[in-house]
């Protein structure tokens, strides 16, 4: 069975060749590097990056003090375990070796089998110190080591970077304990799709990394989204689950409809790019994950697909904003300042004029004052017409209104409720936030 988890590496520093010990360690499944010279062993630490070092104390003139300091200064994460082998007749040496910095002392002669089991116990404890306390999965340190192993040793690997969207608002609404339960549920979903030999780590908060084979990665990403979306509504009240959003409260009294928690997954794999480090692999996968966040609901993006267009005019396209505002001075202020921000702006002073521009000019975002001059319908009815039309429903709609009923504004279909009066800088920030979440194929990586 293929596994992406690297084999534990043991560095043996000895003055004698003991077939009993080397054979037992090899049979136990460890990768063994043997050195008969202390200086050469020290110089090889960063190259080998051992999980555990077995060193015969008779090779260390100062009870291993210098060697222990060299190991601790080697910046290997996690630090190798240092086990000193001391002859059973040299009782005082045991204490001195521990004082010098060794993690454990084992007397020899010793059977190879017993030594191998002692090494296994140390490796197990080392791994147990690098787990996420919430899910019990390996942490970011172990994930980094696995990715480095994939980069240099594995021939077939793919990485899924996974996290939750809108978890902050969920925590604010339902409490962090409920949020932790949501994260544990995601961990359970991820475990349920694992195949033999796959690797799963919980790096931070709701950030997970899954390592699998290239031909299974995208299918697994799709299945993860499907399974999580099936269970996610159970973490909400019936009211919130039915309407499909919660109300998030921001600064300045701004309220917006925030969708239910969903999953974003980014994927990359061996051969897609000229990767040089585990950090670079993770960064690319997270870039893909960021693109997945531009989609509605749970989704995934892989860099196997061509995400960028070769047509530069699409990248340079300016966003179109429609201002629906009855007050002439206010509409002029908004249009001028938005154009200075780089947007293309049109202004409507009535619902009929607004509807004509919406259906013909097709803006990406609308700033709507509901107290606009009604012709055939009022501002609230205009909102409903936009959101009930499948071809127009994707247009972002910000209500800039004096109406204090934010629930009515959001339930009518507004994506953001911005009470008047408001600061222009706040408006610009919210516009950029909304448009950034709609970012898709015009992003060059």
How is this fold's topology laid out?
Elements: E1 9-13, H1 19-27, E2 31-35, H2 38-43, H3 45-48, E3 52-56, H4 65-72, E4 81-87, H5 91-100, E5 104-108, H6 112-128, H7 140-153, E6 158-165, H8 167-174, H9 176-193, E7 199-204, E8 207-212, H10 214-231, H11 238-243, E9 245-249, E10 255-259, E11 262-269, H12 278-292, E12 299-302, H13 312-315, E13 320-324, H14 328-340, E14 344-348, H15 351-361, E15 365-368, H16 379-388, E16 396-401, H17 406-411, E17 416-419, H18 424-437
Parallel strand pairs: 1-2, 1-3, 3-4, 4-5, 11-12, 13-14, 13-15, 15-16, 16-17
Antiparallel strand pairs: 6-8, 6-11, 7-8, 9-10, 10-17
Structural overview:
The protein has 445 residues and is an alpha/beta fold. The protein folds into three domains: 120 residues, Response regulator (Rossmann fold, 3-Layer(aba) Sandwich), CATH 3.40.50; 163 residues, Alpha-Beta Plaits (2-Layer Sandwich), CATH 3.30.70; 125 residues, Rossmann fold, CATH 3.40.50. Helices cover 43% and strands 21% of the residues. It has 18 helices and 17 strands. The strands form three sheets. It has a seven-stranded mixed sheet, with helices on both faces. Strands 2-1-3-4-5 form a five-stranded parallel sheet, sandwiched between helices. A five-stranded mixed sheet has the order 7-8-6-11-12, with helices on both faces. The protein is elongated and about 100 Å long. The two termini are 36 Å apart. The C terminus is likely disordered.
